[in-house]
Specification:
The complex is a heterodimer of chains A (334) and B (488). By secondary structure, chain A is of the alpha/beta class. Helices cover 31% and strands 14% of the residues of chain A. Chain A folds into three domains: 130 residues, Rossmann fold (3-Layer(aba) Sandwich), CATH 3.40.50; 40 residues, no CATH class; 120 residues, no CATH class. With 488 residues, chain B is α+β, with helices and mostly antiparallel strands. Chain B is built from 14 helices and 15 strands. The chains are: A alpha/beta (334), B alpha+beta (488).
């Protein structure tokens, strides 16, 4: 039972720990949003309408056909809504980088919650002689006040609930969102079939390099340079010019927007098809262009990438196989 | 007071919370506005290659990533002691002006407009953008979509992407624009000026032409006498991308102007243990608590603040509106918070005029959009005027250009104390002994903070003005007697 009283299937969109860019990307499909309205009953979408948690709770299980969930899981409220929407939705889509792989805020997994808090309340402009920190429960003269505590690490959506489809991007590009909406509408009219459960949707199945118009020459490099120190040739592969580019490890789907704008791919579409660990794949791609067999020289070349974790796991730390994310959280909870 | 819960407590922890405490007589004793989340950018931006930080900090807010990208770009310029070529600065400001048009348009039509166009006590179902379109005509709805589309088109042309631009690097930009793009951007900019003028006319007709609204704007409920800050150019005219921050007191006297590197002499942040967000205040005046007046360091950084803190607008049409604004409202400074909506439209017009000014400059299509840094990176501050307040990024690096410290004072954060005060005042004015508290209260309280266009995406994850909100009213014993919620 996924049809509402007016016969239209139900649609929901939710943001957990996120920046709002995914919702902006959905609004950027412009007139296509009318197709959503014509084919779905939007039952829950905080950015566009009153969000009625109570109404969602009252819905029968699996009564929402499609839920696009963006944002990572940073605290118990995020986890609670993820579980609620999982229960109520037939199809739950991890929408955007945060829900898929943690995105940049998952770099916080390199620090403890205490370090994060200490940093924020001891900055140069903070006047805090008593060393105050926000606390979960605090008594003011008038009564008690409560704020939620942070989880030890940022988690991806599928580390909390089962996910049916993965739609990558930071944010997903609007043309991809429009294509997915078209597909779902066709499925509703019996004109198409859904892809197999667990698939990545709204993206390609090759790499950003395959979409990139820059020329590659299978050249090797002797030095990594930072973008501020080099005038990039607009026609030639950025990696071959010695500037780290995430294209080789990153799933296609964005039309290589950043390299087209003279800027390296940052990897926001996540690991390419078949890649288990984004950083490991990118490192192996980088290794393959380094022109040296001398250990000291290789060290010197790699000195050109002084922050490997930030450059190789910019979007993917929560979703990676590194200990600093999922296994760490599991061990802390066990 | 009878214990009534309109909506049982739902899981709203990740969103804004307002706690209202009543005294024995049933009057408001105090209110607390809590921000319940922290993502820790100041921590995880440390250890990064500094050129990454303008891209990382985009993810603070997907609504205003352009502001973070620009403040970050200026900070990394400063870190490398490099002055970008004129064309690079103009391109950045052009992107930023187009973004302002989009952002201010969204706020006025979709978020704040409904209160005025439909009326603050109109049924909830009509008090939204669709209600506005119904009342003023479908054609206007189309124009609002057009303004958003044009703004994002310019952002993508210069910034590489519609959301989270990526082209600003230390010393300039990774790309310029072609003559063909220039012509297209100019055409869109000229349209934007007409759209901004039309929006001001609409405001004039619907709001200023209605005595009830004028009384509401001028009334005491929404008035606070605070300090104001805003960025100005060398002629003390408003600027969003570059200049010094002008600080004026509640009487309109300019206390001084500070450049990026002096911000810590002027601004400090107060900590309260019941919320994750800090309360910035004027250091030279001092933190005296949540109070108005000349002796309280509480300041405001909004469109209203910017017109109060500047001597005028740098473009002719916006300057005319600026003069009309102050002559209509009785001179500077204007303290009535609801007048912020009008000031925002004057800024919309300025941004559109500035857009055209920049795109018609002969050097805008120059390919001199980069300066290669030659000095060792150290430390730098970048400040821009974000739509929701002065935005400060401060980065320190080691000699390899790896960040060792990061400090961010984000747009909306500036206004945390005044927003809290506005909420308290609205609650105190509306909830009295024996008053029946209704959802109407919620919208009147919301109007108090909607004027600030709060974007707690920067602190939590909500869109401007649409902050999911829970209001809990406690009796004198601290027990909750009523819970009201508005999740949108």
């Amino acid at each position: 039972m996924t049809a509402s009283s007016n016969g239209k299937p139900k649609f929901a969109m939710y943001w957990a720990a996120s920046c709002g860019g995914c919702d902006i990307a959905v609004l950027n499909i412009h007139e296509k949003i009318l197709d959503v309205d014509a084919n779905f009953e939007v039952v829950f979408w905080p950015v566009a309408m009153d969000a009625k948690y109570k109404d969602v709770e009252a819905m029968p299980d699996e009564s929402i056909l499609l839920t696009l969930f963006n944002g990572a899981i940073r605290n118990d409220e995020n986890a609670h809504i993820a579980q609620l929407l999982r229960r109520k939705s037939k199809i739950l889509v991890a929408f955007g980088s945060c829900a898929n792989e943690g995105c940049m805020p998952a770099l916080a997994n390199l620090s403890s919650v205490q370090e994060i808090i200490d940093t924020a309340y001891e900055t140069i402009s903070t006047d805090n002689p008593q060393g105050l920190r926000p606390v979960a429960n605090y008594t003011v003269p008038e009564g008690n006040l409560h704020i939620p505590s942070l989880y030890p690490v940022v988690r991806t959506l599928d580390q909390v609930v089962k996910v049916d489809y993965y739609m990558p991007g930071c944010p997903p590009e609007s043309h991809q969102i429009a294509a997915v909406i078209d597909l779902v509408i066709k499925v509703l009219h019996g004109e198409a079939q859904l892809p197999p459960a667990g698939s990545v949707i709204g993206a390609g199945d090759s790499t950003v390099c395959d979409e990139c118009a820059r020329k590659r020459d299978v050249k090797t490099i002797k030095e990594f340079k930072r973008i501020q120190h080099v005038m990039l040739d607009p026609e030639i592969c950025i990696l071959e010019q010695g500037v780290l580019c995430s294209g080789p490890a990153t799933r296609s789907g964005c039309k290589a927007l950043c390299p087209a704008a003279g800027s390296p791919c940052i990897g926001c579409y996540g690991p390419a098809e078949g890649v288990i660990d984004f950083g490991a794949r990118l490192m192996s791609a980088v290794a393959s262009v380094i022109d040296s067999n001398d250990a000291n020289e290789i060290d010197r070349i790699l000195d050109g990438i002084p922050d490997p974790v930030g450059m190789f796991y910019r979007f993917n730390l929560a979703g990676s196989v590194l200990r600093a994310s999922k296994p760490a959280w599991l061990s802390k909870q066990a | 007071m009878e214990r009534i819960t309109i909506d049982p407590i739902t899981r709203l922890e990740g969103h804004g919370k307002i706690e209202i405490f009543l005294d024995d007589q049933g009057n408001v004793a105090n209110t607390y506005f809590q921000i319940p989340e922290l993502r820790g950018f100041e921590r995880f931006c440390v250890g990064r290659q500094v050129e990454e930080v303008p891209i990382l900090t985009n993810r603070i807010c997907g609504v205003c990533p352009e502001a973070h990208h620009m403040a970050g770009a200026k900070a990394v310029d400063a870190v490398y002691h490099v002055d970008p070529p004129r064309t690079a600065k103009m391109l950045r400001e052009l992107l930023y002006s187009a973004f302002y048009v989009t952002d201010h348009t969204t706020h006025f039509y979709a978020l704040a407009g409904p209160d005025f166009v439909m009326g603050p006590d109109a049924p909830v179902a009509e008090r939204n953008i669709l209600g506005v379109i119904h009342k003023v005509g479908l054609e206007i709805g189309g124009q609002v979509i057009q303004a958003r589309k044009y703004g994002h088109t310019v952002v993508e042309m210069i910034g590489g992407r519609k959301v989270h631009p990526c082209t600003s690097i230390p010393g300039g930009l990774t790309k310029g624009i072609t003559e063909e793009q220039r012509q297209e951007i100019e055409k869109m900019g000229r349209w934007a000026i007409e759209f901004a003028q039309f929006s001001l006319k609409l405001f004039n007709d619907i709001v200023l032409g209605n005595k009830a609204y004028v009384d509401l704007i001028l009334g005491d409920i929404y008035t606070h006498r605070t300090h104001y800050i805003g960025m100005v150019d060398e002629n003390n005219k408003s600027n969003f991308y570059d200049g010094k921050i002008s600080v004026v007191d509640p009487e309109g006297v300019r206390l001084g102007k500070y450049g990026p590197s002096d911000y810590t002499e002027w601004i400090a942040e107060h900590v309260e243990p019941w919320t994750y967000l800090k309360f910035p205040y004027l250091k030279k005046v001092g933190w005296k608590g949540f109070v108005d007046g000349k002796d309280s360091g509480v300041y405001c950084a909004t469109p209203l603040s910017r017109v109060n803190a500047s001597d005028g607008m740098a473009t002719p049409l916006a300057q005319e509106e600026y003069e009309k604004f102050f002559s209509t409202l009785g001179g500077k400074p204007v303290h009535q918070r609801l007048a912020t909506h009008w000031a925002r439209l004057i800024e919309l017009l300025y941004a559109a005029e500035r857009w055209v000014e920049l795109v018609t400059d002969p050097e805008i299509t120059s390919d001199n959009f980069r300066t290669l840094p030659t000095e060792k990176p150290t430390e730098g501050v970048g400040i821009v005027e974000a739509p929701r307040g002065t935005l400060t990024h401060h980065y320190w690096t080691d000699e390899r250009g790896i960040t060792t410290r990061v400090n961010l004072i984000v747009g909306t954060t500036n206004n945390y104390a005044p927003i809290s005060m506005s909420i308290k005042k609205a609650a105190q004015s509306l909830i009295k002994e024996g008053t029946v508290v209704t959802e109407g209260l919620l919208n009147m309280v919301e109007m108090a903070f909607r004027a600030y266009d709060p974007c707690f995406g920067c602190a939590t994850h909500s869109l401007p003005g649409q902050m999911p909100l829970q209001v809990t009213i406690h009796d004198a014993q601290g027990n909750p007697v009523k819970v009201l919620k508005q999740a949108c």
